[in-house]
Amino acid sequence: MHEHIHRDDKEGPASKGPKVPVTVIGGFLGSGKTTHVNHLIRASDDTRVDVIVREFGSISIDDLLVHLPKERVHVFPGVSMHHDPQLMLYGFLDSLYERYGKTFDSVLMESSGLDKPEDLVQLFFLGDVAKNYRLGSYIAMVSADYGSLDLDEYRIAREQAALADVVIINKTDLADEAEVDKLEERIRGMNMMARIVRAKFGEVDPRMVTDIGLHEQLEEVCGRLMEGRRAFGMDDIRTIALTETRPMDKEKVNAWLQNLFMKEGTKMLRSKGFFNFQGFDERFEFQAVRKTFHSKADRKWEGGEERKSVIVVIGEGLPDEKLLQESFSECAYQG
């Protein structure tokens, strides 16, 4: 198991200052990623936004469609089958920071429609990338007209929706409202945690899709649970949400996590949460992609704020939700 304990995500090494926030725009082929990137560029006002274009082909085209000066568009080209694309992208981000990091206000990374989303998200837990950058949000674009077909036929499309912090159902002008409703319900069945936004031509309020805070995400999940809405759909990927209002025993939780990752880690595409530990005034944050995770004290609980522990797990072939909730609740502090 790989464990990465980080300091505050919004602060980098003392000598380098704040981490650079990165918005990763993923989604299947033809979903409108470049159009959305250009919309976010237009909405960025005077801030310095650079774009990384992840291109699979030997000839890059998408970078020519990005509305920025050439020196602010950085192409990461297709890779050989003999090289690890995640390792090469790690090196690319590292060298990019050394050259331009002090000038970035933020970065948009447009991924290829065939990139594995877990490789992209996992990067921000690793080594120097984690020191210099932070993942603001992973956005999955889904086309309203062909989205259901893509989800039916391509596992990579399902994984993109499942790992997303935000899903933008784009091109809603090309599908009737009933179709879009059905598509949204299906995506919610896979990913209870994602914020789902509908759009035409990739145009959405940037505040709805960039830099989505973990607390904000989990509060939305808790709101859905309070409304009695649960995420069980037709797909092989689904969401389990676990909650506990009693303070948790830190040692028991650590043992519970270790056991969960050892037994089920390969099935857990993405998991997030925060803990209220007995004897601590801080809220502890937790995030993971498969077995790679990090945890840290996030901030102090605020006066009047409900102290609770919430874990959301997205994956396939997951344990029975009731049994998992029972084992989670057994970690409550007994006094």
UniProtKB/TrEMBL annotation:
Report the residue ranges that make up the CobW C-terminal domain in this protein. Answer: 237-332
Q: Does the keyword Manganese apply?
A: no
Any Pfam family matching the protein: cobW
Q: Where is this region: Disordered?
A: 1-20
Catalytic reactions on record: GTP + H2O = GDP + phosphate + H(+)
Q: Name one GO molecular function term.
A: hydrolase activity
Sequence ranges of Basic and acidic residues compositional bias: 1-13
GO annotations of cellular component type: cytoplasm
For this chain, the family text in UniProt reads: Belongs to the SIMIBI class G3E GTPase family. ZNG1 subfamily.
- Which protein is depicted? CobW C-terminal domain-containing protein
The organism encoding this protein is Youngiibacter fragilis 232.1
Q: What is the lineage of its organism?
A: Bacteria, Bacillati, Bacillota, Clostridia, Eubacteriales
